[in-house]
Amino acid sequence: MAWRCSSPSAVVRPSRTRRHRLRRSPLDSQFTVGLAQTFPRLGDVEANLQRHLELAREAQGLGVDLLIFPELSLTGYTLRELVPHVAIRPSPEHPMWKPLLEASASMALVVGFVEEDARHRFFASSAFLDGGRVVHVHRKVYLPTYGLFEEGRYLCAGDGFRAFDTRFGRCGIAICEDAWHISTPYLLWMDGADYLIFCSASPAYGVGTEQEGATANAATVTQFTKTYATLLTSYAFHVNRVGVEEGISFWGGSLAVSPRGQVIAHAPYFEQALVPLEVDPGLLRAARQRLPLLRDEKPLTVLHELSRILSEERRHDER
Fold it and tell me: What are the residue ranges spanned by the domains of the chain?
């Protein structure tokens, strides 16, 4: 399948925002995130790997510390029967994995792939790589199998959400449909995540507006990404792919949102792009002083009420 967007990635530079004058410890130092809005070749892992490495080199020249790729960035999305043929296990010796681990020696990477486990189950996964090692792998929990989606026919669902420590702070990853479930970012937040990473292969559907987004679902994704960042007083990064695959168009529009709910970087719609942006961890402190929702959150109350609801549902089902 030929590349439909063969021109080099556009580098989009976000406008500078006013910096907050805060005293910083070494853990509060600013860093640069890159949103890698790509067009993978369907089923061509080798070509997609080379594209990842090219963008990593380009991003390194821009001073990027953390480069985030979309869902299934190494394989393409509409895989169907190709799933077993493109699946890999994240081993340092795997010929497709080793170059990515080497690239992660100079910057952290989040890459999307089909993961095969020891019992030959296949997952839509995203891995956080840094310092030449695999820091964390998230397996997509919510597999859409409705409308044009058929992931549940070919993939196995993950079974949890875990935040994880990085040199930038504590992060959490969600993959596309995961982020449409409000419990996902809440669980990651309760597990200590200050940086929410949403990796997507979101098809375009519905008619959008110039103000809200190129498509109806683009407007919805932008809206809930801003809402999550605001209510969880956290950074949120949404990285979506572009291109046309098996007649399905993907809209791109990747964005980053500050803990105050402000869009601080936005990629174009329907075009490949590499978007660098500066992240100021001090904004987490400022946002949580202004809006102390984390301080006042009551997870034990949530647990108690969910337990009550589930218990009542079980009793109702047994009648």
Answer: 31-291
